[in-house]
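Question (not urgent): is this output format expected?
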Amino acid sequence: MDEDLTLVDNTNYDDILEKKIKGIEKKCEELKKDTCKDDVLKEINELIDQAIKLKENVSNIYFQYLKTSSIIIYEKKLKDLIKDIETLKQSSIKNKNEKAYTPNEFNYDDNFLLPDDDYLFKEKEEVQVNENMIDLSQYKMSFQNMENKRIIKGFGETGCSNLLLDNLVNCEIIILDILSSVLIQKIKQCTIWVSAVESSLMIYNCQDCNILSNSKQFHKTYFP
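Got this back:
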């Protein structure tokens, strides 16, 4: 392909250029069919260099022996050919990268890792709790059977204990410490603020109350 470019009078340079362009086109088609070769990028780069060099020769050397219309045609052909080879280069690089990293292929059906619809959209049924089901003696700190009281416990004052609030009316309970668990039941018109609960916050049979807390689990029944 790298023939002597010395210009000689009475030489048909149209035939020479056509031959060179067809040679580049043929090589390009061959590389398209075998982009997985180890040295394909090297060959593509060499082909790009040949096409660019030939285009420069058309503009700087062959123009002396070619018609203006022929120069325009050859420059356009070579421009499109260079673009085509560049596209081939990008495709080859992509294939090489995909070959270098091929993720494991697994066949998953459409329901893989998806729960059943009835489980996904079914709301949890509220648990009806009987008073006899809960052992109130397990709560180390409790406030029971009070009306119109305001109680505040600061950080570190509870010993990370569990808390029972039972049968309160119009009370304000503020706990700024971290508690292990909290049970609130049978309270009316109360304001309860517990900063943090490590496990569960359970609320049963409360009416007209404002309760603010942060807990890992939350259970309630009859909380209008």
